[in-house]
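Hi D.,

Good news: the full-assembly prediction came through. Inputs first.
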Amino acid sequence: MTCRRRFGEIMDATPILRVDNLVKRYGGLTAVDGASFEVRRGSITGLIGPNGAGKTTTFDIIAGAQPPTEGRITFEGNDITGLPTHELFHLGIVRSFQIPKEYGRLTVIENLMLVPPDQPGESVWATWFTPGRVRAREREVLELADEALDFLGLSHLREELAGNLSGGQKKLLELGRGMMTESKLVLLDEPGAGVNPTLMNKIIEMIRRLNAERGYTFCIVEHDMDLIARLCDPVIVLVEGKVLTEGPFSEVGNDPRVIDAYFGGAVSAAGPA
Amino acid sequence: MEQYYGYFLYLLSLLTMGGIYAVLTLGLNVQWGFTGLFNAGIAGFFAVGAYVQAILTTPIYARHLGGYEWPIPLAMLAAMALSAVVGYGVAKICIRLRADYLAIATIGIAEIIRLVFKNEGWATNGPRGISQIPKAFEDLPQPWNTLAFVAMVLAIVMVIYLALERARTAPWGRVMTAIRENEAAAAAAGKNVERFRLESFVIGSALMGLGGALMAQYLKQIDPQVSDPLTATFLVFVMLIAGGSANNKGAILGAMLMWTVWSATEILTSRLPDEFAIRSAYVRIFLIGLILQFILQRRPQGILPERRPKPHPRLRGDRAPAANTGSTKQ
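Then the structure:
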């Protein structure tokens, strides 16, 4: 694949995403407690922390799956706090899920063809009255989907129902969905969970390539320290709903406070998965 | 000869009723089969269609609204439109509910609709209902009138089938299936889940209204009993599940087949001694329940299971897959 830097200076220093003083309370439980951080454009930013640190909640809030109790989220300088998921998608924010959410009764290729925006065939009237336009766009979408399948190495499964894929293949498919649109920021929730080492390498390679070739910015929640170490810079450490520290993995990983949060004190049982 | 003519007319009645039920089942297929919306208030939308048809076409009569004497096809369109509007209103309120809660809400709404038709006597003649509803082609001599009506019903079924099949295999159907399979992921793929669910509900409701309009003509009289949930909601669900949910052919097959079973059992039980004939009405319901159980346990996908559209041809030649493929299943 050719080198396509669609978004200009990909290692731009301005943040693509800013999270300001994010708070989320569920009744008496405070899941996120004033977290603030930035994701640099073109970076692969890691979000780590022991279980219950509020990582997935933070993700859900950024992705519009639930509203924050307090705080503000800015994407490319615009306030996006509380926008619904489907609108965020059209701004260029795509997410994956901790447990893959494929469309089980759609085929693999349909799982990808679903994603691109501006499909006239999504209007029921257009399917009846302007089938020509529907077919023309469908061809483009199909080509894009085949390109993504080739990239992911899933072409041999294109007519398989997605529900029949293995866990790892579903993870790849989730990654593929991000390729079907002009994504700017891809939020990956544990892309390496439950994946064998071979596939893990492949996923890491895919993320690197999408970052380098297409200029996608990634924000990754992950427990697998190997993946974080190989992929992410910077790494943000979230503990008890707050940002504890931030920096390159080599620094963060040796920070005594981080080690303590993972292995010591009240969260000793939580260690990296 | 006389006897065969009787059989022939019976066959026509099976086709007509089966066809009308097919319209309802196709409507439910859009909601439940494609999109996963558990509408347990089919009877309500059906009744709206039936009453609109009745009120708009009957001659003037002191005991209910009427005297508009609209042409039959126009009244049928109006029946669809009003059912769609009611469907829109209902959907606006409850479309965000999860499957089981949507079912509870729609049962309630269908019941409200039935009670309105029963109690607003000035418009609907209350429990006595509306009679002398004009039926398409009824001026033709027998059996041509019956034949023409059957042909019209089957033609309508065919048109709906073709339209829905086109929509199902298009991106529209893909989005609906994605929403049924995983709502959160569909939203994450930029689809306005609420809008699509609403659209599906409205289209389904319009078809149910059309079913009601056809039924009103066929029976020539209606009363609030037409929205009896047993025959207007429950039976339609059984038809769809038996035929094959999310499969349009299955919906039609299920409607024809289950109506034949429903009707044939009535003939059989009516031959029993009086004492048993009355009780046997309940045996029919039991039989339908039994068939449903059997299908759900033995063949949950129905007689004709859901099928995705034909494989999409590769537009470009097969290229070598990217290095290090994840082809091995873990």
